[in-house]
């Protein structure tokens, strides 16, 4: 994977890459959007707690494919209000590797249940094991 942040356009607003190049033949994993709900059905009241649960679920999914957070090439995240952006980004930055993946953050009107504040989906890629 190679980050692409070309000269001639404004640098990223936060810790993300404008684009990530993925080598042909890479294994790809497309992760559905994860919501901030624990296995015991509890939902934290704050965006940071929910984002932590989202990324922990993503980590488990990636591990099931033999991948990890360093393999993430793209994040799409959705929050329900502008005030949730900072908390989400702080959690995202703890879970993402260098170089940071390409990332989009959108404000949406809501999710399937009103207590959800954030939803996160990722695309990950890794080269097949050499053998």
From TrEMBL:
SUPFAM superfamilies: YjgF-like
CDD domains: YjgF_YER057c_UK114_family (cd00448)
Lineage top rank: taxon: Bacteria
Cross-referenced Pfam families: Ribonuc_L-PSP (PF01042)
Taxonomic path: Bacteria, Pseudomonadati, Pseudomonadota, Alphaproteobacteria, Hyphomicrobiales
Organism: Faunimonas pinastri
Name of the protein: Enamine deaminase RidA, house cleaning of reactive enamine intermediates, YjgF/YER057c/UK114 family
């Amino acid at each position: 994977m190679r980050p692409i942040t070309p000269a001639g356009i404004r640098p990223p607003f936060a810790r993300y890459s404008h684009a990530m190049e993925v080598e042909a033949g890479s294994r790809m994993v497309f992760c559905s959007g994860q919501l901030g709900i624990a296995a015991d059905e509890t939902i934290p009241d704050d965006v940071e707690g929910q984002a932590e649960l989202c990324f922990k679920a993503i980590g488990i999914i990636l591990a099931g494919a033999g991948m990890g957070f360093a393999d993430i090439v793209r994040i799409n995240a959705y929050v329900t209000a502008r005030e949730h952006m900072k908390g989400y980004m702080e959690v995202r930055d703890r879970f993402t590797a260098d170089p940071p993946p390409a990332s989009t953050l959108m404000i949406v009107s809501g999710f399937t249940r009103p207590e959800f504040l954030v939803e996160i989906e990722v695309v990950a890629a890794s080269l097949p094991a050499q053998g």
